[in-house]
Amino acid sequence: MRTDVLLAILGMALATYLCRAGGYALFRALRPPRFVEVMLQHLPGPIFIAYVAPALATQGARGFVAAAAVVVTQATTRNLAAAIAVGVGAMWLLGLVR
């Protein structure tokens, strides 16, 4: 076993824990302003878009068409499995069209 690799893993685990624990400790000690609380409540959506948009961009138009099909399916059926199936099916069909 390589000690340097183990120490790097343990160091990163400690750094990750301290970042999370520090945030909890900070919010416990200091109450953030209301606009910060509201902003943090809306943060998951932009983070999701930040991950999804580059992946869609690499697929070009067919990625955006498939994403639109997913959004429409999810909005109309409220069924996540159906939305995923439609997205996968749309990517497959659009891949055949090329």
TrEMBL record:
Cross-referenced InterPro entries: Brnchd-chn_aa_trnsp_AzlD
Domain of life the protein comes from: Bacteria
Alphabetized Pfam families for the sequence: AzlD
Transmembrane segments: 45-72, 79-97
This protein's UniProt keywords: Membrane, Transmembrane, Transmembrane helix
The protein, known as: AzlD domain-containing protein
